Amino acid sequence: MNLYANDLLSSPIGLLLSLLVGTGFGFWLERAGFGSSRKLTAIFYLRDFAVLKVMFSAMVTAALGLQLLAALGKVDLAALYVPESIVWPQLVGGLVFGAGFVVGGWCPGTAAVGLASGKLDALVFLLGAGAGSLAFAGLQPRITDFLHAGTCAIGSLPEQLGVSGATGAIVLLVVALLAFAGATKVEHIMSRRT
Amino acid sequence: MQKPYWNPYLAGIGLGLTLLVSYVVLGTGLGASGGITRLAASAAHAVAPAAVERNEYLGGWFADGNPLAYYLVTMFVGTLVGGFLSAFAAGRTTFVVERGPTAPAALRLALALVGGGLAGLGARFALGCTSGQALSGGAMLQTGSFVFTGACFAAAFALAPIVQKEWR
Fold it and tell me: What is the residue-averaged pLDDT of chain B?
C-alpha cells in the first residue's frame, strides 16, 4: 500500500521520500533542457518541440506502467490520489495558466529548475506565482459555485467513454507517436526557413 | 563548457519513470504549484498572521500546525536540488536574466512577474499545474487534465505572437 492511502504522505518518511521523488523530477526536467525559458517557449514559435516530446513520453511511460502494474495486481489504481475533474474551472484555469506560461516563460516546476540554474527571471516568476496563489485565496470564498461547475462523477476519460484504462493508455501512445512525427516534420520545415 | 541536453524522448521516459515511482510509492503524482502556494502562505502569515488564518482557503493549514510540513513542499525543495545537481554537472549554472536577443532585461523581469502571477492563479483554479494536472493527471487519463492541458496550450499559442520580442 502507498503512503497516501495510509495517510502517511506528510509523515517524516513521506516528507523524505517526496524530497527524493522531487529530486528525480528536477533532475529529468533539467536534463531535458527545461531550465531554460527560451527553450520552453520555443514550442509556441514552432521551433523546438522538446516540451511536447518530453511531456508526451513521460505521460505515456507512466500511463502504460500504471496500467501494466494494475493488470499484474501490483498497484490498486483506486488507492491513488488523482485531482478531481472539474471541467469549467480547469478550462478557465488552463487558459489563464497558459497565458502565464508564454508571458512568464516558465511553469512552476520548470521555474524551480530555472532558479536552481541561476535564472533570475525564474525567481521573479516564482514570486509572481506565490502572489497569484494568494490572490486566488482572496477570491475563492466568492467563487465557490464556479469552482465546482462541471464536476465529473467519473474523472477518468476512458471510463466515461466506457472503455478500459489499458485501452486509454494505448490510444494515448498512438496519439503521442503521431504527435512526435508531426512535430519532427514541423521542426524540419521551420529550420529550413530559419 | 555547457554539455548538450539529453534526448527529449529519453528524458521523457526518465521523467515518466519518476512519475510512476511517485504513484507507486507515494500514492500520488508529481506537483509543483501546491508547494509554492504553501510557501507563499507561510510568507504572508509572517507579515499578516490574522488575515491569513481568517482566510477560508489558507486558514486550515495553520490551524493544523505547520503548513510547510507537507509533502508538496519537500517535493518542491527536491525539485530545486535535482535541478541544481543536473545543471551543475552539465556546467549550466550561471546567473542570468534569460531573454531574446533584443528584449530588455527589465521588460523580461516584469513579464516574468506578470506571467508567474497568472500561472499561480490559474493553477489554483485548475487544482494543479503542468506537473500535478497535465502530467500526473494525464498519466491517469483524467478528463479534467486533458481539458486543462488543451486550454493551456491554446492560450499560450494564441498569445505567443504578442510576446514574440521577449523570446525570439
Answer: 97
